[in-house]
Task: inverse folding
């Protein structure tokens, strides 16, 4: 939803591009609009489900006979999205069945592979849908591979709804991904573990009735043989449940392919990390997790957890440690994404980048309490494609400044090589540039020849002349988004000294440019923005 404010108008410049929709998409939308209009007329006649059965036979049977399964799956998805976008009115809609109920009654068949059940206000609507799933799935079950159930507002549901959910779950034999928000309990976990023998992804967000016992039953730890999910599960999301560090560790320990375990970090993270560290120190047991968040203050815990996760790809560290505890590049061979936060010592930062930097594709820094050396990042992270800095100070060292003045390249390990040559995305928010005249932002724009998107805090030292000089050295030919907001700092001006000259220069130099902003912080009046829009053949959009 866009909130239109007078002072926000014309804050961004975007080129006009008319892209016609595909004919098959347009024809699907027209067909669905006609069907939905028919269903809407019959919403108040279905208390005994007779009308539903007639509609399912007249419309649904024709679909099943005349259309391929892939087409029906597309229609089900597109139509569901169209209905969800309609505004729901308590006065108008509460006394009649939800339109989604009628739509699914007509379109859903057991050979469909993807189904999403959105929020439904009325209990009778939820019961009707669950009853439909039970009926059409008898006796052979469903072919569903992905099921998302978010139709319950609260975790407390009626006995009838709970019974129907459990009964329906027994029919999903081929599920690979299951989302069951708010209403999952220990009994349902056991049914899922027994039934879904191919399950790879499970999301039970806000299901407070799920406990450690439910995890144990899900895995079949008390059965004669562990359930098949132990060898198939790759992703589990247990946020806002009653699962503790014991249940989370059971998932990690017994699910040998588990790559992602997502939970509320403020609940039991430290105890969970201690379990991982202890298991490695005692048994040298390692795990398959691909990402981990480490808020650590003890070097031994940091070292043991890293050692226990040899397949890490994304590492997030929040620490005040002065040194990186005995970390070798061979300990984290697959880490391509690094997030560092809360750092108080530059030594930790430098050691981490020296060890991991060469393999990094993404680097994110947040709340750093010293000046971040941007040129050091460019020198140590030669393959970097994404750089994000939030709430920090950025600078370049004096040696780099002198090298730039005398030469257009920066020396790295004896080679004449440009830094940030692969950098595509830059995000700098609440960043202060401690240098004057030539800042870290100048440095990035000068060398990031592959840059596609940049959204940054501005600086009063980046002027039209600076942009012109930078574009002569680095035309930014791949740039698509250039967003610059006001500088940060007590003594900083409220806007950046960029004018229509920069807009025109970027427009000429960057053929793929799609957006320039945020112009309300630039030295441009509303009249100048309108003139630019007219001269460049662009549209001026409204900021959120």
Result:
């Amino acid at each position: 939803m866009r909130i239109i404010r007078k002072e926000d108008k014309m804050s961004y410049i975007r080129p006009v591009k008319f892209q016609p929709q595909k004919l098959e998409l347009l024809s699907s939308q027209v067909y669905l609009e006609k069907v939905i209009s028919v269903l809407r007329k019959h919403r108040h006649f279905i208390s005994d489900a007779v009308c539903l059965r007639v509609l399912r036979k007249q419309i649904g049977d024709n679909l099943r006979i005349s259309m391929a399964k892939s087409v029906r799956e597309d229609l089900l998805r597109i139509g569901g999205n169209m209905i969800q976008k309609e505004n729901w009115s308590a006065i108008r809609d509460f006394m009649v069945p939800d339109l989604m109920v009628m739509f699914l009654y007509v379109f859903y068949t057991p050979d469909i592979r993807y189904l999403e059940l959105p929020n439904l206000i009325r209990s009778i609507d939820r019961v009707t849908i669950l009853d439909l799933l039970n009926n059409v799935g008898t006796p052979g079950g469903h072919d569903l591979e992905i099921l998302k159930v978010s139709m319950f507002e609260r975790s407390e549901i009626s006995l009838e709804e709970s019974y129907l959910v459990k009964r329906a779950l027994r029919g999903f034999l081929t599920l690979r991904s299951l989302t069951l928000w708010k209403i999952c309990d220990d009994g349902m976990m056991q049914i899922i573990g027994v039934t879904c023998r191919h399950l790879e992804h499970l999301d039970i967000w806000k299901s407070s009735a799920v406990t450690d016992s439910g995890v144990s039953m899900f895995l079949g730890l008390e059965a004669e043989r562990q359930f098949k999910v132990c060898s198939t599960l790759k992703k589990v999301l247990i946020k806002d449940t009653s699962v503790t560090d014991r249940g989370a560790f059971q998932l990690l320990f017994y699910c040998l392919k588990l790559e992602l375990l997502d939970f509320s970090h403020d609940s039991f993270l430290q105890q969970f990390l201690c379990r991982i560290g202890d298991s490695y120190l005692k048994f040298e047991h390692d795990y398959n997790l691909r990402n981990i968040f480490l808020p650590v203050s003890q070097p031994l815990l940091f070292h043991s957890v890293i050692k226990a996760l040899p397949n890490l790809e994304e590492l997030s560290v929040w620490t005040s440690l002065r040194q990186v505890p005995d970390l070798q590049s061979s300990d984290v061979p697959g880490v391509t994404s690094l997030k560092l936060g809360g750092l108080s010592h530059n030594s930790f930062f430098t050691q981490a980048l020296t060890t991991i930097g060469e393999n990094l594709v993404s680097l994110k820094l947040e709340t750093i309490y010293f000046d971040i050396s941007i040129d050091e990042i460019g020198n140590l992270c030669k393959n970097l494609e994404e750089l994000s800095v939030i709430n920090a100070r950025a600078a370049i060292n004096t040696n780099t400044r002198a090298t730039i003045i005398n030469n257009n390249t920066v020396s790295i390990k004896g080679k004449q090589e440009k830094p940030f040559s692969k950098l595509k995305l830059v995000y700098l928010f609440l960043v202060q540039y401690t240098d004057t005249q030539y800042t870290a932002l100048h440095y990035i724009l000068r060398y990031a020849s592959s840059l596609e998107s940049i959204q940054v805090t501005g600086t009063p030292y980046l002027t039209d002349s600076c942009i012109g000089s930078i574009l002569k050295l680095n035309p930014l030919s791949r740039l698509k988004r250039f967003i610059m907001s006001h500088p940060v700092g007590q003594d900083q001006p409220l806007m950046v000294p960029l004018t229509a000259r920069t807009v025109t220069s970027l427009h000429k130099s960057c053929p793929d440019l799609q957006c320039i902003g945020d112009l309300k912080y630039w030295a441009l009046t509303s009249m100048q923005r309108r003139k630019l829009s007219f001269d460049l053949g662009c549209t001026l959009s409204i900021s959120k």
Notes: The chain has a mean pLDDT of 88.
